Amino acid sequence: MFDLSGRVAIVTGASRGIGRAISIALANHGATLAVTDILTDAVCAFGDELRSQGRTAQGFMLDVTDTASIEATVEGVLERFGRIDILVNNAGIARDQLLMRMKREDWDLVIRLNLTGAFACTQAVLRPMLKQRSGRIISISSVVGQMGNAGQSNYAASKAGLIGFSKAVAREVAGRNITVNVVAPGLVDTDMTRALPEAVRSEWLSKVPLARFGTPEDVAAAVCFLASDEAAYITGHVLAVNGGMYV
Known about the structure:
Blueprint: E1 8-11, H1 17-28, E2 32-37, H2 40-52, E3 57-61, H3 67-81, E4 86-89, H4 104-132, E5 135-140, H5 144-147, H6 153-173, E6 178-185, H7 191-194, H8 198-205, H9 216-227, E7 238-241
């Protein structure tokens, strides 16, 4: 099940957390991995780690806010592996603050990295995908993009934007056998959520019917499904991985 052998996947923001788990899961299902991150040393070490485990992988430095960096990475992946079958837009950042206190630069940074970065990466991989008449594009949104959250207007806007963006692109490229979908995680146990005050973590957890934090592996499993042949007739869809937090 979920046989991804022979397929080449690019994962952005891959050096840690959800991106790392997604990369490992895709590799475990047979995909060749181009793991990318702005943290050059970390992502190159991750590529080395995957290769030491017998996986076909390569680490690439990628700044999703820099068009030249994106183009160079896509060219490097094509040169190294010959094709691109899967793109996972996972790179993201949060700069939380109540709207009345939010700095314009924090709004701009979150939108530019989370949303415009996904636009630019998707645009860059579309040409090879259109040429080969196949592809899977999966963007990591958030439950916050569906339900909102006080103090995260910039983050919520960027993640909601990913949903609208993906639905539109899904209609544009469906005729070339390219699917475009979204995974929207809820409360996931990562470095970001562990940094929250315990009272905040407890309050958020009380809203989850399954009464636990999600794991990066929960999100990774959803990505592997959407990347697989089993999901070939699914496009423009938002797959919620949130323990029932938003239904």
